[in-house]
Design brief:
Helix content is 23%, strand content 29%. It is an alpha+beta fold and 338 residues long. Helix 2 packs across helix 3.
Length: 338
């Protein structure tokens, strides 16, 4: 009888331990460099990305792009698929559905959060989430309307709310800020304006709940120490966690150490940022991460070696020249623990 009782207690203890097992979730962001279909949308400037366009973007090239991207996304975490993936430079929902249906991604069973942006080229932001890990609640947008340039159309910021794990609500913002075309200094005001709109949205959330768990991801076309990110959005590398509302940029220290996600004329730029509220760092009972969590996925096989021997992102196109690579950006990612 005593042996049976001990056996039952042991089984119960094992079951309890398994239920308390720590879980890890990978959160990723990837600028996928113009994931277009081959159809001509008369309402956008997508003519180049058609079989007849100057890029000769055929069905075969589109399919290769999908296979390439699915290979990258399925490899970021060697143990699991990323639970959440932010994307930018996607044309529409159709290309997202094609992407998650690829052989290397379909078993992940991703859901899609996406809205069409007014961007003239027709590119949008989107979020993929594993349905068995992230309970989608809602999504909306922060529309960007420049008061001094009413005809300037850019990407909306996508805001997604959901529950990751057992009961932790997350607010995720996926961004693709205006480019540096025309020069970094001349175009800076546009990125500053977008940062201001995002900061307003974050402040509203934190007014309701100072401990709101917030993740901001995206291609800012600015680096962590530029005015838009550090001053306006107030995302820094200050490791004081006493204020749960402060924002911490997980990529800041990597930038300081000379790392980057985009290589321009031999120089590394950290344009792809991952920012979390301090409530995700100071907290240890629910979802949490740490100051060193930010990573760049730059496996050799997604790289191109320059004549100087530098491994840079192996892109799909450089101007009109087709290389058949993955993207001109590296993905970035971090882990959340529960």
């Amino acid at each position: 009888m005593l042996k049976k009782l001990l056996f039952v207690l042991m089984v119960a203890l094992i079951a309890f331990s398994c239920s308390k097992e720590k879980k890890e979730y990978t959160i990723a962001f990837y600028n996928v460099e113009n994931l277009f279909d081959t159809l001509n949308d008369p309402n956008t400037r997508d003519d180049d990305f058609t079989p007849e366009g100057k890029l000769e973007y055929t069905a075969a090239r589109y399919q290769k792009k999908l296979v390439n991207l699915s290979s990258v996304l399925s490899s970021i975490d060697k143990n699991n698929f990323p639970a959440i993936i932010g994307l930018c430079e996607v044309e529409n929902r159709s290309v997202l559905e094609a992407l998650i249906s690829q052989e290397k991604l379909k078993s992940a069973d991703y859901g899609i959060a996406h809205t069409e942006s007014p961007d003239g080229r027709g590119i949008d932001c989107a979020l993929l989430y594993q349905k068995n890990k992230f309970k989608y609640l809602s999504h909306d947008i922060i529309g960007i309307h420049f008061p001094d340039e009413p005809n300037y159309k850019t990407r909306d910021i996508l805001h997604v709310e959901g529950i990751l794990g057992s009961n932790d609500t997350l607010h995720l913002f996926v961004n693709h800020w205006p480019s540096r075309i025309g020069g970094t200094e001349k175009s800076e005001k546009n990125r500053v304006f977008v940062a201001e709109q995002l900061k307003i949205a974050v402040d509203k959330l934190q007014e309701k709940n100072p401990n709101a768990k917030i993740i901001i991801m995206g291609d800012f076309n600015d680096e962590p120490n530029n005015k838009s990110a550090e001053e306006i959005l107030a995302a820094t590398n200050n490791k004081d966690t006493s204020n749960p509302e402060a924002l911490y940029n997980l990529m800041y220290d990597l930038k300081i150490n000379g790392k980057g996600t985009y290589n321009y004329k031999g120089d590394w730029n950290m344009l792809d940022n991952l920012i979390v509220s301090n409530s995700l760092i100071s907290n240890t009972k629910g979802l949490h991460t740490n100051h060193q969590a930010g990573k760049i996925y730059n496996a050799d096989w997604i790289c191109h070696k320059t004549p100087k021997g530098i491994l840079v992102p192996n892109r799909t196109y450089a101007g009109p020249k087709y290389f058949g690579g993955y993207s001109d950006h590296f993905p970035v990612y971090f882990q959340l623990n529960n």
